[in-house]
Fold:
Amino acid sequence: MLSRVVGPLTRLIYGSGGEDVMSRDWDNLFIFDACRSDMFEEVVGVDQFDSYETIRSKGGNSPEWIRNNFNGKTYNDTIYVVANPWTHVLEQDIFFKVIDVFEEKEMVQSCSSIDFEKWDDVGTVPASVMNDVTRKIHDTHPDKRLIVHYFQPHDPVIGRGDGEIEIDEELEPRTNLVTGRVSPGEIWDGYSRNLQYVYHYAEKLMDDLDGKTVISADHGELLGEILWPIPVRGYAHPEGVYHPNLTTVPWAEIDGERREIAAGQGNHDRISKNKERLRDLGYLGD
Structure:
């Protein structure tokens, strides 16, 4: 119902346009997954940035954001380092390189000390691993723009503000929030911990990369808001719903010494479809 009925109404009321992130000025674009701007402002703060604004996302969920920002275009000056499992919606020959970190176990082993058994327990890509892989990619390709698409603060809740792993399986919005097992406030607190966790690592990576860095998000998150004008509550980030809490995202800029960017002939390997991961995260049925 949300996608078929509420979705068109939200697009009619709020519109469906959004910011083209690739046309903005940056060397490093850090994407926090499912990060509402109001949560970012409350948890991270904005005073430490050289500039801050909110922008309208081109999608209310990850596949919409990926398709609407990238498909049909070519960015041979950019490498996409991504923990999000929706990379299969990307068309071929868009980026110089796409690094699907969940699938690149050999690369991870070469640059990270992560315990793979612990990684399996976490169920998603830890932010520390994203940092390790991104540093290696930057060292290898210092003349490329970088999109670093972390999976946090999106559930599962896995971390603390000090960067340590602490898993809370109860704080899951698509089932436990909908059924009332947890409250919106508890989900907010869990997302806040995940946001503190990923920002801890984003700060570290900013220090290691030259250039201008931007922190933004692919989309926000619904925590049971009434989706006016239909008296139905929205949860998580359903397809086609363009509520402001899904499409209003942060845009925080950190100036740095710029690096020279150059395009090149890309290495466009076919990327995994990640269907098992999407099923584990509750997006696909059995």
About this structure: The longest strand covers residues 145-153. The longest helix spans residues 184-208. Residues 82 and 149 are 5 Å apart (CA to CA). The chain has one domain: 2-259+270-280.
